């Protein structure tokens, strides 16, 4: 599954266009490598997303093409959520 679609379906980022923009700016890394919007993600991958005043690290637990709001939160596990003191 594409990174931008996963972020939208899992509701880590609400809109796919926003997910695409964040990835194009180099603010998302998969397993330590900067990712593009079309990068394929798989179960077990670790995402580091820098957006707004925080950095979120999440592990992908499940992939689904469509997910209800209740099931979306089960697609990933938040490992850490850090507030950045200064935005670049």
UniProtKB/TrEMBL annotation:
Domain called RNA-binding S4: residue spans: 1-61
Subunit structure: Associates with stalled 50S ribosomal subunits. Binds to RqcH, 23S rRNA and the P-site tRNA. Does not require RqcH for association with 50S subunits.
Family from the record: Belongs to the RqcP family.
A Gene Ontology BP annotation from the UniProt entry: rescue of stalled ribosome
Entry keywords, A to Z: Protein biosynthesis, RNA-binding, rRNA-binding, tRNA-binding
GO molecular-function term, one example from the UniProt record: ribosomal large subunit binding
Source taxonomy: Bacteria, Bacillati, Bacillota, Bacilli, Bacillales
InterPro entries the UniProt entry points to: RqcP, S4_RNA-bd, S4_RNA-bd_sf
The protein's role, per its UniProt record: Key component of the ribosome quality control system (RQC), a ribosome-associated complex that mediates the extraction of incompletely synthesized nascent chains from stalled ribosomes and their subsequent degradation. RqcH recruits Ala-charged tRNA, and with RqcP directs the elongation of stalled nascent chains on 50S ribosomal subunits, leading to non-templated C-terminal alanine extensions (Ala tail). The Ala tail promotes nascent chain degradation. RqcP is associated with the translocation-like movement of the peptidyl-tRNA from the A-site into the P-site.
Protein name, per record: RQC P-site tRNA stabilizing factor
Superkingdom per UniProt: Bacteria
Pfam families in UniProt: S4
Designated gene of the protein: rqcP
């Amino acid at each position: 599954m594409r990174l931008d679609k996963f972020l939208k379906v899992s509701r880590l980022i609400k809109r796919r266009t926003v997910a695409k923009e964040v990835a194009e700016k180099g603010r998302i890394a998969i397993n330590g490598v900067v990712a593009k919007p079309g990068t394929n993600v798989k179960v077990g991958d670790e995402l580091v997303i820098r957006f707004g005043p925080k950095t979120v690290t999440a592990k992908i637990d499940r992939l689904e093409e469509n997910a209800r709001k209740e099931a979306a939160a089960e697609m990933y596990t938040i490992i850490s959520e850090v507030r950045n003191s200064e935005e670049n």
